[in-house]
What we know:
Blueprint: E1 11-16, H1 27-35, E2 38-42, H2 43-46, E3 56-60, H3 65-77, E4 81-86, H4 95-104, E5 113-117, H5 122-130, E6 131-132, E7 138-142, H6 150-162, E8 166-170, H7 180-191, E9 197-202, E10 210-215, E11 228-232, E12 238-240, E13 243-245
Parallel strand pairs: 1-4, 1-5, 2-3, 2-4, 6-13, 7-8
Antiparallel strand pairs: 8-11, 9-10, 9-11, 12-13
Bound molecules: S-adenosyl-L-homocysteine (SAH).
Amino acid sequence: MTATKPQSARWVVVAGLGPGSDGMVTPEVSAAIADATDIIGYIPYVARIAPRAGLTLHASDNRVELDRAGHALELAAAGGRVVVVSSGDPGVFAMASALFEALESAPQYLDLDIRILPGITAMLAAAAAAGAPLGHDFACINLSDNLKPFDLLARRVRLCAQADLAMAFYNPRSASRPDTFGRILEILRVECAPHTLITFARAVSTPEQRLETVTLDMARPEMADMRTVVLVGNSATRKLGRFIYTPRKAL
Ligand code: SAH
C-alpha cells in the first residue's frame, strides 16, 4: 500500500483490474494486491490474481454484489487487508457503488480505511483500440435492465441519440435478455442516420480481442455478447484508414 501506511493497518480497497491485459493494471492496484490478505470478487476477476502464501482468494458468482461487499467490510473489521476486484474501473457498473450501498446499511464500518482505486474502463480501452470514436461528448449506458426498467433505458438512449451524443453501451446482450439490444438498435434506427458508425469491441486487450465497425443499417444484435462494449458514433464520427474517429468540433 502507500509508504505512510503501516502493514498491520486494516483496510478495504475496491480496485479496477482494467479490461484484461496485465499492462493495463495500474501500479497502485498492483501494490494493493501485493499487500492484501484477502481478495474478493466475481470468479473470472479473482482468477486473474496469482495465488501466494498469506493471501486468501474469495471468488463468488455474479449478482451477489451486496453480499460480497458486506463480506469485504466484515473481513477488514476483523483485521484483514481486503481488495475487492472489478474488471475495468470499479466505479463503472461495478463494485464501488455496491460497497457504498452495503455501507449505508452498516454504517458502523464507515470508520474503516476505505479507498476506491480506478482502472481503465472497457469503453476507453476499446476507443483507444479503434482510434478516437469518443473524442467529442459521449454518454455511457448500461444496457442491462436488471437494475432499471427497460422504459427508462429506452428513454435515455433516445434522448442521447437526439442530442447527437456518441454512446458506449456496456452489458449489451445476455442469454437472460436476448431482445434488449435489438430493441435498442431499433430506437437508434429511428433517431440516427443509417450511416452512423457502430464499433463492436470484444474482449479488448486480451488475446481474443476483436473489433468490427459497421454502419447502423448493417448492425445486428448477434454482433454483441457480454464480452462486448458497443461504441456508437455521433453524426460526425468517420473512418480514416483503419481508424474510427470523432472530430473535436461538433457538426
Ligand atoms: N467495470 C467494468 C464494466 C463491468 S460491466 C469496466 O469498467 O469496464 C461488464 C461489461 O463491461 C461487459 O458486458 C462489457 O460490455 C464490458 N467489458 C468489460 N471488459 C471488456 C473487455 N475487455 N472488452 C470489451 N468489453 C468489456
